[in-house]
């Protein structure tokens, strides 16, 4: 395997492990997940920068007769430096939250918020009501306020003009309306 493929596979593995850790309910695992995920993304950005070359800032002055080597792209390196700063700030923020939570409750477990539980219960109740209303509407269309319009193809009472409800077919009795 080529070195860039190994780096890409390692970066993907780190990202996957970071996402799994972020889904845990423990704040200490959340901190580790943020750090592992950011390192995996940095590795993927570095891999996406292409093959290694000379330093991006130095000029490629080669003596006559020798071909110059390709310069490496400075953008991925700048993005990685920015990502390191952002991941450090994110980790510090989550560590502060974990510390405060540990001081208040004695553990680092994330609990469900009371307001979230209330909203979830109301949502489940609304879904049950909507399902029941739809079930009754199928059984009795007048439940939803639907009007029956026997001589109309359109809402609002547009006459059929001698048709029996199906397009292109006149009524069987031959009457106009």
Description:
The chain is an all-alpha fold and 177 residues long. 56% of the residues lie in helices and 0% in strands. It is built from 4 helices and no strands. The chain has helices at residues 3-22, 27-48, 74-105, 114-139. Helix 1 packs antiparallel against helix 2 (27-48). The longest helix is centred in the middle third of the chain and has 32 residues, at 74-105. The protein is elongated and about 75 Å long. The termini are far apart. The model has no long low-confidence stretch (mean pLDDT 75).
Topology record:
Blueprint lengths: L2 H20 L4 H22 L25 H32 L8 H26 L38
Helix pairs in contact: 1-2, 2-3
What's the short version?
This protein has 177 residues and is mostly helical. The protein contains 4 helices and no strands.
Characteristic terms for this protein:
177 residues; mainly alpha; 0% strand
- Overall shape: it is elongated
> Which regions contain 5 or more consecutive residues with pLDDT less than 50?
none
> SSE string, helix = H, strand = E?
HHHH
The total strand number stands at 0
- The helix count comes to 4
Mean pLDDT: 75
Our estimate of the beta-strand percent is under 5%
**Which class of secondary structure composition applies to the elements?**
mainly alpha
Rg over C-alpha atoms, rounded to the nearest angstrom? 33 Å
